[in-house]
Amino acid sequence: MSERHRDESAPLLPNLHHTGSMIAHEGESGRSGFHPRHFVSVLWRSSSKVSMLVNVLWPFVPVAIVLRFVTHAHLYIFATSYIAMVPAANLLGFAGQEFARKMPKVAGILIETTFGSLVEIILFVVLIANHEEDASKGSSDEGNLIPVIQAAILGSILTNLLLCLGLCFFFGGIRHASQKFHAIVSEVGSGLLLVAAFGLLIPSAFYSALKSEALPDLFLQPPRPGALLHDDFTKGKLQTDVLQISRVASLALIFAFGLYIWFCASSQHSLFDEVIEMDEHRDADRDEDLQKPKFTMTETMVALAVSLVCVTLLLIFLVDEIEHVVRSGVPDQFLGLILLPLVEKAAEHLTAIDEAWDGMINVALYHCLGPSIQTALFNAPLVVIVAWIMGKPLDLNFEIFMIGLLVLSILVVGNFLRDGESNWLEGALLVIVYIIIAIACWYYPDPDVATSNGLEQPAVVKVTMTKDLLDQLQQLLRSGEP
Q1: Structural domain boundaries of the chain?
Q2: CA 32/CA 204 separation, integer angstroms
Q3: φ and ψ at 423, to 5 degrees?
Q4: Across the 482 residues of the chain, what is the mean pLDDT of every consecutive 10-residue run?
Q5: Cβ contacts of residue 123 below 8 Å, gap of 6+?
Q6: Which of 410, 393, 381, 111 is nearest to 240 (CA)?
Q7: Burial class of residue 305 in the structure, from the number of CB atoms within 10 Å of its CB (0-12 exposed, 13-18 middle, 19+ buried)
Q8: Cα 57 vs. chain centroid, distance in angstroms?
Q9: Partners of 178 in the beta sheet?
Q10: What is the pLDDT of residue 19?
Q11: What are the CA-CA distances from residue 309 to residues 47, 113, 390, 469 (Å)?
């Protein structure tokens, strides 16, 4: 067996019986335990100069907490909580990065991406927990948060693919004119993203194909001799079928994500290692980063715990105020597709942009595509399963408008990745596309108005009648049947 073959087939996750330690050299702090002064110093320096500047926003965290418990100024609570989410999410991302440094290369990237996605998972769970099932036909100001969740799922993917990747290409292109990235990162990322998008869009395609055949529930009659099968295919049955398809598809996507993680973590990882290692040696700030003081494992765990508590509290505050924000004039789609993904992805974006600026375009690309893949393959299916457990009808039946945005965005990004090279112009174009989407979302109507993927009902009239009158009407309809 050749040395190269042994390297490629060796597992990424180390065998504890043989290695004795999982801590990489660049992840060692040289200390142990918890030291408050050192902890604050490392926290303040963060992972980059941009992330360090974000730490000036920490005073908004106690302000948001105080406002939440002593006032009823809903918009101010939302605004301060929104700003406070940036440093809290940044700490979670930095703590995850410190933990990842103590792991092997590719495993560290996967772990760092996972910690970054914790904000998103918490957001989705808090949203579905606050959804009021009896308001499922209204908008967010009536307690219906399912449109916001669905928009946030796709908004998270679009924010990474268009805004984050565009800013990476733009700032990396300004400093390095042109940056070449390895084909394996872009090909694997694009392929997985297409598969994930296919799984997410199947329920919507199913619904769109059959919605014109569904009958109103009012006219559901007992089966008659010789009746056609579709006579019993009502709006309620179609929605139930879509819900079941969404749940099965979610389980399948989570299984696919498990296969992806296992593949990256157990075999065929040497090429990823080589690409990431090559990027790290091209890092313009490598020497400076290696000399930075680091968290001990204990300090890393404390940072993760503090950041998770802050992030969870702030997301609860944000979700509680969504009803008032929508009533103030902010559309549901803009809130879910633009505002929420922007704040919960802030830390990941800052990290990726800093990596592109330093010449680590492959790692930056992985930080853009990786979270999108995790959102589509794991985070979104997970919240469907959680809603199922909680007895709430969350499905993957997205609006046609949002489906079009996702498909077109994947095609645009795939076209820019095809040549294996990026520049500032491509980055600027991706950001412009994102801005156009944001403007369109601002003018998109709320769910109680927009029914692009709903059953066709040109007019809805509310009629109140007695049970006897309803029985007479049904008897009259039956008497007119052949």
Answers
A1: 3-456
A2: 52
A3: -150, 175
A4: 44 41 47 70 72 85 91 89 89 79 63 74 87 62 78 90 91 83 72 80 86 65 48 76 91 87 63 61 59 75 87 89 85 87 82 82 81 87 91 87 86 83 89 93 70 47 64 67 51
A5: 152, 315, 319, 340, 344
A6: 393
A7: exposed
A8: 23
A9: 423
A10: 41
A11: 21, 19, 23, 57
Element of type H or E holding 93: helix 74-101
Q: What is the rounded distance in angstroms from the CA atom of residue 137 to the CA atom of residue 73?
A: 28
Q: What span, in angstroms and rounded, lies between the C-alpha atoms of 447 and 380? A: 20
Q: What are phi and psi of 360, to 5 degrees?
A: -95, 65
Give the Cα separation of 389 and 367 in Å (integer): 31
What is the full DSSP assignment across 198-260?
A: HHHHHHHHHHHHHGGGPBPGGG-----TT--GGGG-BHHHHHHHHHHHHHHHHHHHHHHHHHH
DSSP H helix total and E strand total for the chain: 23, 2
> What three-state secondary structure class fits 328?
coil
Tokens (6 digits) for 206 = 């199913």
pTM: predicted TM-score of the whole model, two decimal places: 0.77
Domain 3-456, second-level architecture: Up-down Bundle (1.20)
Which of 94, 92, 113 minimizes the C-alpha distance to 52?
Answer: 94
Query: Helix, strand, coil proportions of the chain in percent (round to 5)?
Result: 75, 0, 25
Identity (one letter) of the amino acid at 253? L
CA–CA separation, 269 vs 173, rounded Å?
28
Q: Determine the 3-state secondary structure of 52 from DSSP.
A: helix
Q: Which helix (H) or strand (E) segment is 342 a member of?
A: helix 340-344
Residue owning tokens 């996750």: 13
DSSP state of 158: H
Helices 297-320 & 36-45 angle (0-180, nearest 10): 60
What is the per-residue DSSP string for 394-419?
------HHHHHHHHHHHHHHHHHHTT
Q: Which helix (H) or strand (E) holds 179?
A: strand 178-180
DSSP code of 284? Answer: T
